[in-house]
Design brief:
The protein has 357 residues and is of the alpha/beta class. Helices cover 31% and strands 28% of the residues.
C-alpha cells in the first residue's frame, strides 16, 4: 500500500516576518485560502487513504496541525523530540510504517512546495510508487530546469531504466548541491540535469536497508526504536535515542551514497517556495508589476511585493522592493536580495530579539 509522509517541522525563515517559529511557512496561506500544508495533504487524498497520510513534525506544532488537518488521525502525527535534519525524521517515519505494514511504499513530501497540476502530480506519484515497488530502487522526482538557478540541488541523469509510454526513469549518476552560476548554466545547457525536488518514493524495507548500508550507526538506533514502538516508555526512549542520531539530510546521508537511486522527470509545474520572490511566478500582478496582498496605496510604485497584515502600506517612488508587515515586525528589502533574509534572521537572533522572530 502507498503511504504519504509529509515533512512539516521546518521554520521557513526566508518568509520572515510573515513566517515565525510559532507560525512557520507551511501553515501560511500563500496561494489561496488553504495553507501550504493543507494543500499538500489535499493533493494526495484522491490517491492515498486518509489513514495512510502521516505528518512528521515536533510537539510545538501538534495543535496547529490538528487544527489545520482535523481529519488526520492523531496517531499519524510523528513527533520529533528535536530537529535532527531529514535523515532522522524520515528514518523515524520509516520504522513506524514498517511496524504497521512491512510491504509499505513510502512517499516523502515536503509540506511547503507548490505543485501546478495536481492530477499530473498524482499520476506521476502513482507511477513512481509502482516503479519503486517493482524495481526495489530509491526514487526521486527531478524537475526540468528552466534557468541556471543556484539555489537548487541538481541531479545528473545516467542510463535509461524504463520507458513506459513516455514515462521514463533514469539511473542517477550524481547529485550536486547548489552549484555556482557558471556550473548551473553548464548543467542547463547539457540537458542531462534535473533540479532536485526533495520528493522521494521507496519501499520502506528498501530505505531501511539503505540506512543499514550507508548509515549503520543510525540504523542501529532506528532498529532499537522499531522494537520499542507501542510500549509505555516509547516517548522517553525516542527522545533519548533521537539525541544520539547524526544531524544530516537524507540526500547527504543516503541518496548521494546509494547506487540504486532512480530519478523520474516530473511533468508537473513545481516550485519549492523558497523565498518571497517565488510568489512572482504564481500570483497576479497589477499594471505596474506589483504583487499586493493587503491594503496599499502608492504613487510611482512598481515591480514590488507588498504584503500587509492589518496596516495600510503607503509608498512613493519605489521599485523592486519587498515590503512585508506582520504583527511583530516590518521588513523592507531589495527584492533581489530576498535570499539574505535567512541571514537577517540570524542577525536578529544574535541581537537577542527573538520575540520578533
Amino acid at each position: 500500500m502507498l503511504y504519504a509522509v509529509i515533512l512539516a517541522g521546518g521554520v521557513g525563515s526566508r518568509f520572515w516576518p510573515k513566517s515565525s517559529s510559532a507560525n512557520p511557512k507551511q501553515f501560511l496561506q500563500i496561494f489561496g485560502d488553504k495553507s501550504l500544508l493543507q494543500t499538500t495533504a489535499g493533493r494526495v487524498r484522491p490517491l492515498i487513504r486518509q489513514d495512510c497520510v502521516y505528518v512528521v513534525t515536533n510537539d510545538r506544532y501538534f495543535d496547529k496541525i490538528r487544527e489545520q488537518l482535523p481529519e488526520l488521525p492523531p496517531e499519524n502525527l510523528i513527533i520529533e523530540p528535536e530537529a535532527r535534519e531529514t535523515a532522522a525524521g524520515i528514518g523515524l517515519a520509516a520504522v513506524r510504517l514498517a511496524r504497521r505494514d512491512p510491504q509499505a511504499v513510502m512517499a516523502v513530501l515536503p509540506s511547503d512546495h507548490f505543485i501546478g497540476s495536481e492530477q499530473d502530480f498524482r499520476r506521476c506519484l502513482s507511477w513512481a510508487a509502482e516503479f519503486a515497488r517493482n524495481h526495489k530502487m530509491l526514487v526521486t522526482f527531478g524537475i526540468r530546469p528552466t534557468e541556471p538557478k543556484t539555489g537548487y540541488g541538481y541531479i545528473k541523469m545516467d542510463r535509461l531504466l524504463v520507458n513506459d509510454n513516455g514515462r521514463r526513469a533514469y539511473h542517477v549518476a550524481e547529485f550536486t548541491e547548489k552549484p555556482d552560476f557558471d556550473r548551473a548554466l553548464r548543467f542547463l545547457q547539457s540537458g542531462k540535469y534535473l533540479w532536485n525536488s526533495g520528493m522521494f518514493v521507496w519501499r520502506v524495507q528498501e530505505i531501511l536497508q539503505a540506512y543499514r548500508r550507508h548509515m549503520p550507526e543510525m540504523y542501529q538506533h532506528l532498529a532499537h526504536l522499531y522494537e520499542i514502538l507501542g510500549t509505555p516508555d516509547e516517548k522517553a526512549i525516542i527522545r533519548e535515542t533521537y539525541a544520539k542520531m547524526e544531524k544530516l539530510s537524507v540526500d547527504y546521508a543516503i541518496m548521494e551514497k546509494a547506487d540504486n537511486v532512480a530519478v523520474i522527470p516530473a511533468d508537473f509545474a513545481w516550485d519549492d517556495v523558497g523565498s518571497w520572490r517565488s510568489v512572482e511566478r504564481f500570483l497576479s500582478q497589477d499594471n505596474a508589476g506589483n504583487i499586493v496582498n493587503g491594503l496599499h496605496v502608492g504613487i510611482d510604485t512598481s515591480r514590488s511585493i507588498i504584503e500587509s497584515e492589518d496596516l495600510l502600506i503607503a509608498t512613493i517612488g519605489v521599485r523592486d522592493l519587498l515590503i512585508v508587515q506582520s504583527d511583530r515586525a516590518i521588513l523592507v528589502a531589495d527584492k533581489e536580495r530576498d535570499q539574505e533574509i535567512k541571514d537577517l534572521v540570524r542577525r536578529i537572533e544574535k541581537r537577542n530579539l527573538r520575540e520578533f522572530l
